[in-house]
């Protein structure tokens, strides 16, 4: 029976288990978007901690696509070169390195959460002196600001849209050079691609707005551009918000997500990572253990593609049950991996019956901690 400790085949590579570090912004770069020692230690310790897949935080495909001036980026060869030692280390520790490629759309140019999370205008700076910028939106008028202040926004024109597609393609090429095995396109949480998907934030009347086909066009074009340069033997994931949690209005919902997942599979996407929400302050999401899993389950039942579940997974047995019961092919763990970087090893210890096999999972340097 397939369980959380079963290997996951990822084309030419294989994850040693089905527990992944969910992408989590660290806001710990200088405004150049280059990784720092923080990233090396943060991602490296989770690889040491037994995660089958170590996914980076949302990594901006262009400077304007950063949420804050301190986000990680991959818009130049220098970024790729600086990320390479991290992917090497993750691989040495038995993890599969993945990168989440992101454009924050009209949720860009903000202060870091610990500085207040509010928009930084193009003429303003954050407490570190980093400048803000004009942000890109499918339809600026439709944007309901989360935090009171409105950022300076421009409606994406045809050139902007082509620029986004090209930036994703170039970012994927650089990710490959940097040694990543998985490219995940971030199309969730109210960022640019999700803003195009949802009728709440997209009221365009061109070929990128209106019908389901039009609203999903940009995501499909971005995915096709990434797939174009990402080798067949390496997987492409897409993170979606399974729903906007706005049932009282015309919004993005699970039925559209299932339909999109099928379209993505046809474009060569290997796994759809099902999160939710993040688009609008009126959202009413549930909370607690497995709070988004029913959405992942619906996508897995309705579409012909592997599915990742995320949200409220804190226990190895819980992750195991999700895989054993066929609710997900992969379990992404966020906050529990912040509380316990060794969650993967903890899972091996709790779920594996053979103590010798558990010891094998640990880095040789630490093995005496678990050998009898
Ligand atoms: C500090 C932090 C940063 C996050 N940054 C990202 C991100 O960069 N990209 C993303 O898709 N989700 C991001 N998320 C969401 C997580 O990946 C995850 O989906 C969410 O926390 C729910 O999973 P959990 O209950 O296991 O934490 C972030 C969450 C946290 C706590």
From TrEMBL:
InterPro entries: Aldolase_TIM (IPR013785), OxRdtase_FMN_N (IPR001155), YqjM-like (IPR044152). Pfam families: Oxidored_FMN. It comes from the Archaea. Keywords: Flavoprotein, FMN, NADP, Oxidoreductase. Its cofactor is FMN. GO terms for molecular function: FMN binding; NADP binding; NADPH dehydrogenase activity. Residues 9-352 form the NADH:flavin oxidoreductase/NADH oxidase N-terminal domain. Signal peptide: none annotated. Transmembrane segments: none annotated. This is NADPH dehydrogenase. It comes from Natrinema versiforme JCM 10478. The lineage of its organism: Archaea, Methanobacteriati, Methanobacteriota, Stenosarchaea group, Halobacteria.
């Amino acid at each position: 029976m397939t369980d959380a400790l079963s290997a996951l085949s990822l084309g030419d590579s294989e994850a040693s288990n089905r527990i992944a570090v969910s992408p989590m912004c660290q806001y710990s770069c200088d405004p150049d978007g280059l990784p720092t020692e923080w990233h090396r230690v943060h991602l490296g310790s989770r690889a040491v901690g037994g995660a089958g897949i170590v996914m980076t935080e949302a990594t901006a495909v262009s400077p304007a696509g950063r949420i804050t001036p301190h986000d990680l980026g991959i818009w130049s060869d220098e970024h790729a070169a600086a990320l390479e030692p991290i992917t090497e280390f993750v691989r040495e520790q038995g993890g599969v390195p993945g990168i989440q490629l992101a454009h924050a759309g009209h949720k860009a140019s903000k202060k870091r959460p610990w500085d207040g999370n509010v928009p930084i205008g193009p003429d303003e700076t954050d407490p570190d002196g980093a400048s803000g910028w004009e942000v890109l939106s499918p339809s600026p008028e439709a944007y309901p600001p989360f935090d009171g202040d409105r950022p300076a926004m421009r409606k994406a024109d045809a050139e902007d849209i082509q620029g986004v597609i090209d930036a994703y393609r170039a970012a994927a090429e650089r990710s490959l050079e940097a040694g990543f095995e998985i490219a995940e396109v971030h199309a969730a949480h109210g960022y640019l691609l999700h803003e195009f998907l949802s009728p709440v934030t997209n009221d365009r009347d061109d070929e990128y707005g209106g019908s389901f086909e039009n609203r999903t066009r940009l995501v499909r074009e971005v995915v096709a551009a990434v797939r174009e340069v990402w080798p067949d033997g390496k997987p492409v994931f897409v993170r979606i918000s399974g729903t906007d949690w706005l049932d009282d209005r015309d919004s993005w919902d699970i039925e559209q997500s299932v339909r999109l997942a099928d379209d993505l599979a046809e474009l060569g996407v290997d796994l759809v990572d099902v999160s939710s929400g993040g688009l609008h302050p009126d959202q009413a999401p549930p909370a607690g253990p497995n709070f988004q899993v029913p959405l992942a389950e619906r996508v897995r039942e309705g579409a012909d593609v592997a599915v990742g579940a995320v949200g409220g997974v804190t226990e190895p047995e819980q992750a195991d049950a999700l895989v054993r019961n066929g609710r997900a092919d992969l379990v992404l763990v966020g906050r529990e991996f912040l509380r316990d970087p060794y969650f993967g090893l903890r899972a091996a210890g709790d779920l594996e019956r053979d103590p010798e096999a558990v010891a094998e999972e640990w880095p040789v340097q630490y093995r005496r901690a678990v050998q009898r």
